[in-house]
Amino acid sequence: MTLVHNFSAGPSAIPKIVIEQIRCDFPNWNGTGMSVIEASHRGKEFKEIAQETESNLRLLLGVPKNYQVLFVQGGASLQFSMIPLNLSASTSVVDYVITGSWGKKAAKEGSKFSKVNIASDSIHSNYTSIQNEEDWRKSANADYLHMTSNETIGGVEYNFIPRAKNIPIVTDMSSSILSRPVDISKYGLIYAGAQKNIGPAGLTIVIIREDLIGKARSETPTLLNYKTYSDSNSMYNTPPVFSWYVAGLVFKYLIDIGGLSKIESLNIEKASLLYEYIDQSEFYSNPVKEDYRSRMNIPFLLKDKSKEEEFIKQSHRAGLVNLKGHRSVGGMRASIYNALEIAAVNDLISFMRDFENNNG
Ligand SMILES: *Cc1c(COP(=O)(O)O)cnc(C)c1O
Questions:
Q1: Dihedral of CA 59/61/67/68: which sign?
Q2: What is the pTM of this model?
């Protein structure tokens, strides 16, 4: 069996060295004589791994002491409801900035729980840009401002942190967490589904400032209350043990290769190669304004739309898989998360060049 370059938007590539380690550890994990998915989450071995995973994530991201790291289930999508339930009252106003499909979904869900004010919506640019912050229509006293650090479908990423006076900024970092260093202290809450840059699906990481915990509405279900996770080291009920363990391996790997500054420079290199190739070509295009182009998800269109299907078919045959764009926008999308090696991007560019020569 030959391996492929996996450009999937999620679940997505995991570093090959981590996959090898899982395989090696799997039947007899940590000397327990059983696999990690059979071990008790309350046992000594798992608890140690769980704590080490958290402390390594704290180290990587420089999480300040007054922030908690919670390990939750339900995907990033469940956070769309947990956030308003925990951080706002039903009568209060919450601000949302929409820069693509995920932000739109978050705002729609938020409106079931609070009065949503859309402070900005990039729909006028067809979600290829981010409006200047000076032009946002922020509320005078919102309970929080919600944003999406990287819009996975449109490939639009912030290159700034908004200035929200005295209100917590809540950000969906599902597809860009761990891709670059980040100043956690500028945010009230950061959340990310694991299946892009962290590990297997089933785990969601929530990094929350301590003073925002314990304010949930009285009707909030126990498992949707951040305090439940904070009080129990995220083990009120059985956590997603396999995802947690693999996330731990990924964090160790990132530390081993030099941390987030190192990974950021690799990510800049990969993204620049691909954007530069697309921009010099008459055959391919990327619609996103340069300042806001994502380093993780790079959508591109062919000049001749009728060749798309052929592009997908041939690229797949060449071992470049999952390049089909999201069904809502069409075209192609290369997701080049941390685990994608530079060789994958170089191979993709070679393929694109050949395809252009044969079809342009
Ligand atoms: C993938 C993704 C989601 C949805 O994640 P689930 O874990 O499937 O709920 C939400 N927001 C962003 C930015 C994403 O990339």
A1: negative
A2: 0.98
